[in-house]
Design a protein that fits this description.
Layout: H1 32-43, E1 49-53, H2 60-68, E2 78-82, E3 101-105, H3 112-126, E4 131-136, H4 147-154, E5 157-160, H5 169-179, H6 186-193, H7 200-217, H8 223-232
Parallel strand pairs: 1-4, 1-5, 2-3, 3-4
Helix pairs in contact: 5-6, 5-7
Length: 235
């Protein structure tokens, strides 16, 4: 990536999470290719364009912010924009092609007035060294935007954050409790694995809330206390 020799101008980092860390993202067995590609993206050449699709709760926003926070990119000019938060008609994207990396999140929620703005941004970045990392809940094939804009999106390298499968749940639970520094038995992990939702956000939230439940109720982490907790949250 190029290094622009001028002061960072963040303009508006709408929705930016400066605490997100790539080490805290769980890459399930079906997401190993994505992990490899993102490592290449972070350490690779300029002018790379990647489009990531993921269901809500599968971590696309966290993943984008984790990449922006990577040590390798600290000396570069980067920006994160949640397109869903842009509601006015002013030009949000003027001069953004001067950034080294532009991350646009929730691209599928682009409003009509912004379609031309994003298309113009892509035109400006086309022959530059700017890297583009876009994310959406839906694949560009389903977009009802300007045909030329959809075509540009589809020209990106396409990757999907695959949902956590039944085979991944136990590994994900171990990953989460390790990151949260919680000491739960194998028996308890197996108990939760058959009773909680199969997405990372739900698993992480459940483990955080269970820890708070144990503290407030002065209970030990057992299957009986887990059953009481799940009953309370209607799972």
């Amino acid at each position: 990536m190029k290094n622009i020799n001028r002061k960072n101008q963040l303009f508006f980092d709408f929705g930016r999470d400066y605490e997100a860390n790539l080490d805290n993202f769980f890459f399930s067995s079906k997401n190993k290719l994505l992990k490899s590609e993102l490592n290449n993206f972070i350490n690779g050449e300029t002018g790379q364009n990647i489009f990531i699709t993921a269901r809500n709760g599968d971590g696309k926003t966290f993943l984008l912010n984790s990449i922006l926070n990577h040590d390798r990119l600290k000396k570069f000019q980067v920006i994160y924009i949640d397109v869903a938060l842009l509601t006015e008609t002013k030009n949000y994207f003027d001069e953004l092609n001067n950034f080294d990396l532009i991350c646009l999140d929730n691209v599928d929620l682009t409003t009509k007035p912004l379609e031309v703005q994003i298309f113009n941004l892509l035109n400006k970045c086309k022959d530059s060294s700017t890297n583009l990392l876009f994310a959406s809940s839906n694949h560009p094939d389903s977009f009802k935007f300007l045909p030329d804009l959809v075509s540009r999106f589809k020209a990106f390298k396409q990757y999907r954050i695959n949902a956590i499968t039944d085979d991944d749940v136990i590994d994900c639970l171990y990953f989460v409790v390790s990151k949260l520094k919680l000491n739960y038995s194998d028996d308890l992990i197996n108990y939760f694995s058959t009773r909680i939702k199969r997405d990372f956000l739900s698993i992480k939230t459940a483990m955080q809330d269970f820890d708070k439940f144990l503290y407030s109720e002065q209970k030990q982490p057992t299957k009986m206390s887990a059953a009481s907790f799940l009953k309370r949250i209607n799972l």
